[in-house]
Every structure is written in C-alpha cells, then in structure tokens.
Amino acid sequence: MRVKIHDETATGRVIGALELDVSGPVRLRELIRLRVREEVARFNARPVERFHGLVRPTAAEADLNGYLMPVPARIDWEQQADAAVTAFGRNAFFVLVGDRQVEDLDEELTLDEASRVAFVRLVQLVGG
Fold first, then answer.
1. Of 115, 127, 128, whose CA–CA distance to 25 is shortest?
2. Is 59 left (phi over 0), alpha (psi -120 to 50) or beta?
3. What pLDDT sits at residue 11?
4. What's the pTM?
C-alpha cells in the first residue's frame, strides 16, 4: 500500500511530500529507514547540488533549501538511516500519525492509504 509522508514546519505548513510502499504494521524505526532509503535512492538516481532529505549527509552543508552538496556524490542510505534514527533520539524531528505524536522508535504503527503521517523538523534557535 502507498502511504503519503509529509514534511511540515512546526506551524503545520507542508514543505514536502513523499509516497512510500508500506506493507502491514511497521515500527516507527522502520518507517524512518524506509523514508530515508527512498529519498537517498531518488537522489542517487539523479544527483544534484542540493539534497532534500530528513538529515544532512556528512559531506553536505546546511542550506535554506536543503543540504548543499559541494560535489554531487552517491549517498549511503544505511548511513543516512542510522543518522536519522539517532536524530530522532536527539529530538531533531518528531513524527505525527494522525493527530498523535509517536515517541517510541519501536512502536508498531498500523497505517493505511488514508493515514496522515508528518515529519516535523525542529530548527535550533540562534543562541539557544
């Protein structure tokens, strides 16, 4: 089944979307890894100067419109997925399913095509 994943700001404005194939119940950890694998696969198929993904690749610089890649190069999806799971643990982003925040990486989620899944990245304040 296809599930639509939204990227949102903390105010709820949608800034990106991605569809994933998900079969059966999935743990949040697996959903994060599926999402990262898909976005990295898309980037690796057509490398460009900006990577639009959940977490910054090691060789990239943060930019207003994604992550600036000094030299477009292949990204290792597993390394990115591990970084995303770690970032979730550091509260760099949170995940909403419907109107509920999912806080446990091992929580099993039962999703369907009507499920509303949002990844909300938190922006660090200057000096904070």
1. 115
2. alpha
3. 87
4. 0.91
Cβ atoms of residues 97 and 31 within 8 Å: no
Q: According to the model, what pLDDT value does residue 124 have?
A: 54
Question: Whole domain around residue 111: which residue ranges?
Answer: 2-47+76-121
pLDDT digits (tens, 9 = 90+) for 90-118: 999 999 999 899 999 999 999 998 999 99
Q: How far is Cα of residue 11 from the mean position of the Cα atoms in its chain?
A: 17
Tokens standing for residue 74: 């292949």
The CATH number for 115's domain is 3.10.20
3-state secondary structure 79-113: HHHHHHHHHHHCCCEEEEECCEEECCCCCEECCCC
